Amino acid sequence: MSLAITRLDQNARRSRAVIHNGTVYLAGHTADDRSLDVAGQTRQVLAKIDEMLAASGTDKSKALNVTIWLSTMKDFQAMNEVYDAWIVPGQAPARCCGAVELAAPDIRVEIMVTAAL
Question: Could you give the CA distance from residue 77 to residue 12 in angstroms, rounded to a whole number?
Fold first, then answer.
């Protein structure tokens, strides 16, 4: 295992992914089209996560932990329908989900993933 730290898609405030010691840590991702309902936003976010995991050299089958923030728990079921179709059967990561005040009122969901390489 390398002790080097690799940062992807970095700006002054954050990196979209940090790779260290065989683990990929993704920043929280939100949808680009915030006019969508929570299911649409969840699909967009998970597609972005798939892209960032691939750029990091891994994929969702190696997800270790998923943290999901919703703007309201009323969206829990609709988000879960999309999320449940996304996870690899038999490879479900540890997960938590809660409602928080997100950075903008039109963000319905934000998801952060930690994965093995």
Answer: 36
